[in-house]
Amino acid sequence: MASSPFTDPAFHTDRYPTYAALRTASPVLRMPSDGATTATVVTGYDAARQAFTAPLSKDTGAYFADRPSGRSLHPAVARTMLATDPPEHTRLRRLVAKAFTSARVDDLRPYIRELAEQQVGRWQPGTEVDLVEELAGPLPVTVICELLGVPPADRAAIRAWSTDLFATGDHRRIDDASHALAGYLSELISTKRTHPDRSLLSDLIAVHDEDAGRLGEEELLSLAVLLLVAGHETTTAAIGNAVLALLRHPAELELLRTGPHRIRTAVDELLRYDSPVSIATWRWAPEEVELAGTAVTAGSPVFVCPGAANRDPAKFPDPDRLDLGRTNASAHLAFGHGIHRCLGAPLARAEVEIVLAVLLEHSPDLRLAVPADELVWRQSRLVRGLVALPVKL
């Protein structure tokens, strides 16, 4: 069986030519996956939007029940809310949804802005900094750790384990990180059970201790893992991708410099242009289903590609051009669609908006410190993000 194009190193550097070729062949395409598996890959916009609401399952436990993977992922990582279907998914999502409403996020905006200004305020004019290491990485992880009540001294380790979880192809590294992270959070839950605080994690512990029928012990740990990892990884990528896109498109950057009120709407186009979630989390077809006129056989894994759908010319004319005035940019699928749409979308948007605003105010002449083709991208199918983004102030 031919290898998957997603394993080609060139795919990680620039995946859009691959997506365009696949989409041209068919918006819903059968192709090799890992090992001897054949998967269904969805690259067209309409097909992707349909797939997000189709009767596909995210229950990885059911899929791998008779297909041993040979992996040793910690169950709290392998079986998060993202790997469940209703009614379990509905119950778990309701327990945490109120923490990520637009109103709750608006209350966090002053804190997020303070963090961004502190980070940027340390930079000296005329110097070079890595924007991923100095801003895009630490800010989102600090925010989600603050919400969950993770002590400041432990946050660097959290970020390192989280990065390892997205190391595509390095199964040993991923599995080891899953156990390290789950072990740490298990101890943190024990600590907060005896010393509760006002954090979201303490709130979830109280729900479990009052009624284990609403939230089991294993579910409590898996929710903590998911909120911690999903709460910052993709936002880090989104910030780096957005800043790079603007630096590579000076005319669009100038629009924001002269009209910072445009930032909120500009974020939609930036998310569309270079989506931080390139291939959505695992789905499979429990029974045959049709997507955009193509039959997906029962048992087939289904890879829905927001990064490809967001560059579909049938939905977004001239899709490879960054256009902050694009009128339908908000239709992007960077946050998914349907019942599994990203729970933290309001928080992620706020963090990207605030970071861009602070950079425009404090570092208006920011520019790349290296040629764009020398930048190194993360080796991850799920996340599209930079390893580093060297910039000059």
What does this structure look like?
With 393 residues, the protein is of the alpha+beta class. The protein has a single domain, classed as Cytochrome p450, CATH 1.10.630. It is 50% helix and 8% strand. The protein has 18 helices and 9 strands. Strand 5 and strand 6 form a beta hairpin. Helix 7 packs parallel to helix 18, helix 11 crosses helix 13 and helix 14 packs parallel to helix 18. It is globular and about 55 Å long.
Please give a handful of descriptors for the protein shown.
393 residues; alpha+beta; Cytochrome p450; 4-stranded mixed beta sheet; 18 helices; 8% strand
Please identify the top-level CATH class: Mainly Alpha
Total number of strands = 9
Radius of gyration: 21 Å
Going by CATH, the architecture would be: Orthogonal Bundle
Assembly type = single chain
Q: Roughly how many Å apart are the termini?
A: 49 Å
List the helices and strands and how they pair.
Blueprint: H1 9-13, H2 16-25, E1 28-32, E2 38-42, H3 45-53, H4 60-64, H5 75-78, H6 88-97, H7 102-121, E3 128-130, H8 131-136, H9 138-148, H10 155-165, H11 171-194, H12 200-210, H13 217-230, H14 233-247, H15 250-258, H16 263-273, E4 283-284, E5 289-291, E6 294-296, E7 301-304, H17 306-309, H18 345-362, E8 367-368, E9 390-392
Parallel strand pairs: 2-7
Antiparallel strand pairs: 1-2, 3-9, 4-7, 5-6, 8-9
Helix pairs in contact: 7-18, 9-10, 10-11, 11-13, 14-16, 14-18
